[in-house]
Design goal:
Glyco_trans_4-like_N, Glycosyltransferase_grp1, Rossmann fold, globular, 16% strand, hexosyltransferase activity, 329 residues, alpha/beta, four-stranded parallel sheet, glycosyltransferase
C-alpha cells in the first residue's frame, strides 16, 4: 500500500450552495482505518465524514484530533434560516469526542468554548511567502485594471452571501479607486448587478493569483464570519495593507495602525472610509505593507506543520490516551 493513500468517498452538495460539498461516511472509511492502522486520527473540519471518524477512533481506541475550520452554524443561519442550535449540538458531540480541537483564531476558540466544546487549543495557519511576494507586482496587470492610474482595491474569496462582498458598494464609488473582485460563487450574478463599477475576474490560482495580489494597492476583506482569514495572510505576504471587519479571525491578524485597519462589521461606510484614508496616503500604504510582509515571514507552512506535529506528540504522550489495537488487513 502507498504510505499516504488517498481514499475517495461520496459527497453531497450543501443546500443552496451546490459548489460546496460534504463528504459522506461509508464502508471505505472503516476499511481505510483498519488497513492503514494509524497512530492518530486527524479530522479536518469534522461534520458528517468527520463524525464517523470520531466514532471509529473511539471504537478502535485511537487518539483523535479535530480541526475547526468552517463556521457551519453561520451557514445554517445564512442559507437555511434555522437549525443553528442543532448544528452546535451536533458539533459538541463530534468535537468533544476528540482528544483535542484546534481552532484557527482566538475568536473562533472562544466561540467553541462558549458553545460547550472542550479541550480547545489555538493553531493558526501558515502562508506561502515565496509564491505571495511583493516582487510579483506587475505593471501590465496594473495598466489593464487601472488604465487611469486608479488605486486598486482587491477582494479575493468566494462570492457567497455570508461573505458580504456587497458591502464594497460605497468603496466602488470612491474617486480614483478601482475595486477588483477575484473569485466565484453562487452570489456572483447578484454582485455584478450590485457592484457595476467593480471588475470581476472570476477564480484565479497559482502564479496568476499571486501577481494579482501583488499588483493591488489595498486588500479589502468583508466577511464577518471568518474563522481565520487566509486571504488576509496572502495579502500581507504580498505587501498589502488590509481593511477588515473587527470580527472573527481578522482580529488576530490585523493590527490597527501597523498593517491595516479594523472596522465595524457589516458597516459599508466605515469600510469605505478606511479604504479612502489609505487610498489618499501612499506613504501610509507603503509602511503598512512593509509591516504586513515582515509580520508573516515566520508563518511558513513548515513552521505551522511543526506546531501540528507538536500537538500530535502531546496527545500521544497524554496519560489518558489509549493506544489503538492494530488489526491486520
Amino acid at each position: 500500500m502507498h504510505p499516504f493513500p488517498v481514499i475517495r468517498v461520496p459527497s453531497m452538495p450543501l443546500p443552496r450552495y451546490r459548489s460546496l460539498r460534504l463528504g459522506l461516511p461509508g464502508p471505505k472509511l472503516t476499511e481505510a482505518l483498519v488497513s492503514h492502522a494509524p497512530d492518530m486520527v486527524h479530522l479536518a473540519c469534522p461534520f458528517l465524514l468527520g463524525a464517523r471518524g470520531v466514532a471509529l477512533a473511539q471504537q478502535r481506541r485511537m487518539p483523535c484530533l479535530a480541526v475547526y475550520q468552517t463556521d457551519v452554524a453561520a451557514y445554517a443561519r445564512t442559507y437555511v434560516g434555522w437549525g443553528e442550535a442543532a448544528v452546535w449540538k451536533w458539533m459538541r458531540t463530534v468535537h468533544n469526542g476528540a482528544d483535542r480541537t484546534l481552532a484557527p483564531s482566538t475568536r473562533s476558540a472562544a466561540d467553541l468554548v462558549a458553545h460547550g466544546i472542550q479541550r480547545v487549543w489555538l493553531w493558526q495557519r501558515g502562508v506561502d511567502t515565496v509564491r505571495f511576494d511583493p516582487a510579483r507586482r506587475n505593471d501590465l496587470v496594473r495598466k489593464a485594471l487601472a488604465p487611469n492610474g486608479e488605486v486598486l482595491v482587491g477582494y479575493v474569496g468566494r462570492l457567497a452571501a455570508e461573505k458580504r462582498v456587497d458591502l464594497l458598494a460605497r468603496t466602488c464609488d470612491l474617486p480614483g479607486v478601482r475595486v477588483v473582485i477575484v473569485g466565484d460563487g453562487p452570489a456572483r450574478r447578484d454582485l455584478e448587478k450590485a457592484l457595476p463599477k467593480a471588475v470581476f475576474l472570476g477564480a484565479r490560482h497559482g502564479a496568476q493569483l499571486a501577481r494579482l495580489f501583488a499588483s493591488f494597492d489595498i486588500f479589502a476583506h468583508t466577511g464577518p464570519h471568518e474563522t481565520f482569514g487566509q486571504t488576509i495572510q496572502e495579502a500581507f505576504a504580498s505587501g498589502l495593507p488590509v481593511v477588515a471587519p473587527s470580527a472573527g479571525g481578522p482580529v488576530d491578524l490585523v493590527t490597527p495602525g501597523v498593517n491595516g485597519t479594523l472596522v465595524r462589521p457589516e458597516d459599508d461606510d466605515a469600510l469605505a472610509g478606511a479604504v479612502a484614508q489609505l487610498a489618499t496616503d501612499g506613504e501610509l500604504r507603503r509602511q503598512y505593507g512593509l509591516n504586513a510582509r515582515e509580520g508573516v515571514e515566520g508563518r511558513t507552512w513548515s513552521a505551522v506543520g511543526d506546531e501540528l506535529i507538536a500537538h500530535y506528540q502531546s496527545i500521544l504522550a497524554s496519560p489518558g490516551v489509549t493506544r489503538h489495537v492494530r488489526v491486520a488487513a
